[in-house]
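Open question from group meeting: does this chain pack into something compact, or does most of it stay loose? Before anyone orders reagents, we agreed to write out a predicted structure and look at it together. Recording both the input and the output here so the notebook holds the full record.
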Amino acid sequence: MQDQTAPARVDEGAGAAGQPDAAARGFAYALAAYLLWGVLPIYMKAVAHIPAVEVVAHRVVWSLPIAGAVLLYLGRTADVRLAFRSPRMLAMGSLTAVFIAVNWGLYVWAIAADRAVETALGYYINPLVTVLLGAVFLGERLTRWQAVAVGLAAGAVVVLTIEQGTLPWVSLGLAFSFGGYGYFRKTLPIGPSQGFFLEVALLFPLALGYLLWLAMRGEGHFLDGINPWLLMFAGPATSIPLILYAFGAKLLRISTIGIMQYITPTMIAAMAVFLFGEPFGTARAAAFALIWVALLLYTWSSLRARREG
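Structure tokens returned:
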């Protein structure tokens, strides 16, 4: 999963459009994005024999031309040119690029290491982490029910820590890296498509240099068997859901997007248990139950606040 929080400021105005046809199209775009993210672990299993860093490098390299083509189609290249002339924009873009690269790397590694259940938990926790970051760094006050939701999520972490004997660092790492990405991405005054291009463009030299270094050492996997096609597919597998999401987010209310974001981790969790055969014992069931109650409270309180506002 990727940039699900970045276009929030676009959504706020888009919901006012209120046209049934536009909302239906937005729902279709967003649903397609979440479903594609939901089946992404199948692709990640197909490249599980390749080191995670190498897979992430290919995600960057093959995403850049697609992101560039989208900008040309939308006529938004001027925004990116301005971004490259602004030291502040480059610094912020570099920061968000680091956050999303860490998130991608941990996600790719976790799926390959048969820890898909933990990735699902991480993306369930993410909205609550975002609320927590807003409270800590922006001074936003939590409502009573939001505070209860965050407390229940913390309880789920405690349950898993006791069961595993260590912190569920995969889930927390995914939640905080993606939450941090969303937090800093909102401070970047650029649209979702332009922001994605800026991030992959900044990562591109490092990614390409790393892949060339691997090739010179004879350690790259690009030319092995069917790997060229698998690794080139990393571009559309990364970019297409993001593009669909960006279009959908412009036509939907934030509250709708907020509810839909639970589709992907639900699919990942089901796939982990029923397709990949990962264990799902009592402790994990209890942790997921706590998270679901927390998310229901959080979603209900958010919808209530919007109605009252």
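Observations to bring back to the group:
Confidence is low (pLDDT under 50) at residues 3-18.
The longest helix spans residues 20-46.
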